[in-house]
Structures are given as structure tokens and as C-alpha cells.
Design brief:
Elements lengths: L1 E9 L2 E10 L5 E5 L6 H8 L9 E9 L2 E2 L7 H7 E4 L10 H9 L6 H14 L3 H4 L12 H13 L5 E5 L7 H14 L4 E5 L3 H7 L2 E6 L2 E7 L2
Parallel strand pairs: 3-8, 3-9, 6-7, 7-8
Antiparallel strand pairs: 1-2, 1-4, 4-5, 9-10
The chain binds adenosine-5'-diphosphate (2 copies).
One adenosine-5'-diphosphate binds next to strand 2 and helix 1.
């Protein structure tokens, strides 16, 4: 993926200013910088989450597999399957654990046996299966915050994405849950291209391969995490 001269505006406010950089495949790219510097806006632009905000406008392009993701003709529903997203606050559906996974799969006309397999596979991939396999029909809200976050990751993985966007995925978690989610992210980078927003420099150093420093909408530095 390649970001070319990307600017994002909310009204007259240029929240992201002419950013150009690659997002390397099967690596973790971290965005860090002070609050309000445009990290989230940039992340949300990659799978067009900002489209829900009428006033967001884009300039420039995000090229992915030869396609500009900012093209008006892009089908954003398909885009969001391909490029999954996890937010700061764990937001599982207030439904049974299992339903959190199967809900997404409904769109695929999957049969029951395959559904159950997908539930197991996704929960295993999110390192949650052992903790929940005996309570798949319990409400997702009965899980701890860290488990809920791993469930949200499992829900995204069930759609078989290529890219995962993580917006401060551990900020709302206690240190132990946070460490588990970090370990999971490190495991997942074997299979996915990951872009993570964090305000935690140590976290960026622990898990990312590349780091982008933003300040006031500008990309001020991009390079190998060292
Ligand atoms: P960060 O993720 O680095 O904290 P954001 O991307 O959230 O930064 O914000 C960048 C700028 O865009 C800020 O000036 C913020 O006020 C503005 N902004 C963010 N979201 C919206 C929105 N939904 N509507 C209008 N302005 C927004
Ligand atoms: P196993 O057959 O023992 O599951 P794998 O080589 O398939 O061994 O997987 C090794 C680890 O990587 C397991 O924890 C598995 O859940 C995880 N894994 C495998 N494929 C994926 C994938 N596409 N996404 C995320 N995790 C995966």
C-alpha cells in the first residue's frame, strides 16, 4: 500500500497534511504523536470510516493492489471486509460470544458446519478459544475488557481481511490484558499487514517494524522502528 500526498479536511481544518509514505505488507506500521495530530483520521481514511462524517474531504490517493481506495467508485462495504478495524474501546455486539463471529459471516451464505468451524478458527487466531470454548452462548459483555478486545479482533479476522487497522487497541485495557493483546498483534503480523495508532512509544517500539511520527497533521518522520 502506498499513501501519496494525502490530505484530509474536516471543513476548513486540514487534519492530515500531504502525507506520503508506504504501508509495507505483512509488517506492523505504527503511528505515534500527540493527541489531535491526525493519527486516527489517517487510519480511518484507509478503510473510509471517515465517509460517515459528511464534512470529511480527501485529496491525494491511497493506492492498494493498483486501486485508489479514495476513488468514489470503491464499494466501501467490501473494502471494510478486506481492511478490518478495531477501536480503542472494545465494542462487541451485546450478543452471545458466538454470534459476534457468525453475524459477520451471514453475508456469505455459510452452512452451519462451516460457521462453527469459522467461530473456532477465528477465536483460536485471536488467542481466545481456550478461554471461551465452554461459554460460546454467554453474552460478549460477560467477558473482561481484554477478552472483549480479542473478540473484536476475532470478529475482524472472520472476514478474512488482508489488512488490520488498530486504533489504540490497548489504551482502555489494564496492563496484563494489554500485554496479551500486544502478544497477539505480534503473532498476527505473520499473516496480516497491520497499521496501529498508539500514543505509547514503548508499545510502538515493542511491536512495530516501521514508525511514523505525526505532528499537527504533518508526517514529520517515517522509518524503521529501532
Ligand atoms: P489523533 O488521532 O492524533 O488524536 P485526530 O485524527 O482524532 O487526531 O484529530 C485530528 C484533527 O481533526 C483534530 O484537529 C480534531 O479536532 C479533528 N477531528 C477529528 N475528528 C473529527 C470529526 N469527526 N469532525 C471534525 N473534526 C475532527
Ligand atoms: P495449527 O494447525 O496448530 O493451528 P497453524 O500453523 O495453522 O497451526 O497456526 C499456528 C498459529 O497461528 C496458531 O495459533 C493459529 O491460530 C495461528 N494462525 C494460523 N493461521 C492464521 C491466520 N490466517 N491468521 C491468524 N492466525 C493464524
Amino acid at each position: 500500500m502506498e499513501i501519496n500526498n494525502l490530505s484530509v479536511y474536516y471543513g476548513d481544518n486540514e487534519a492530515v497534511k500531504q502525507v506520503s509514505m508506504p504501508i509495507k505488507e505483512n509488517k506492523v506500521t505504527a503511528f505515534i504523536g500527540p493527541s489531535g495530530c491526525g493519527k486516527s483520521t489517517l487510519l480511518r481514511t484507509i478503510n473510509r470510516m471517515n465517509d460517515q462524517i459528511d464534512i470529511a474531504r480527501y485529496k491525494g490517493e491511497i493506492m492498494y493492489d493498483g486501486v485508489n481506495l479514495l476513488d468514489k467508485k470503491i464499494d466501501v462495504v467490501s473494502l471494510r471486509k478486506e481492511i478490518g478495524m478495531v477501536f480503542q474501546e472494545p465494542n462487541p455486539f451485546p450478543k452471545p460470544i458466538k454470534t459476534n463471529i457468525t453475524h459477520a459471516l451471514k453475508f456469505y451464505r455459510t452452512n452451519k458446519k462451516d460457521m462453527n468451524e469459522m467461530v473456532e478458527t477465528s477465536l483460536k487466531q485471536a488467542a481466545l478459544w481456550e478461554e471461551v470454548k465452554d461459554r460460546l452462548d454467554s453474552s460478549a459483555h460477560s467477558l473482561s475488557g481484554g477478552q472483549q478486545q480479542r473478540l473484536c479482533i476475532a470478529r475482524a479476522l472472520a472476514l478474512k481481511p488482508q489488512v488490520l487497522l488498530l486504533d489504540e487497541p490497548t489504551s482502555a485495557l489494564d496492563p496484563i490484558s494489554s500485554a496479551k493483546v500486544e502478544d497477539l498483534i505480534i503473532e498476527l503480523k505473520k499473516y496480516y499487514t497491520i497499521v496501529i495508532v498508539t500514543h505509547n512509544m514503548e508499545q510502538a517500539a515493542r511491536i512495530s517494524d516501521y514508525t511514523s511520527f505525526m505532528y499537527n497533521g504533518d508526517l514529520i518522520e517515517y522509518g524503521d522502528t529501532s
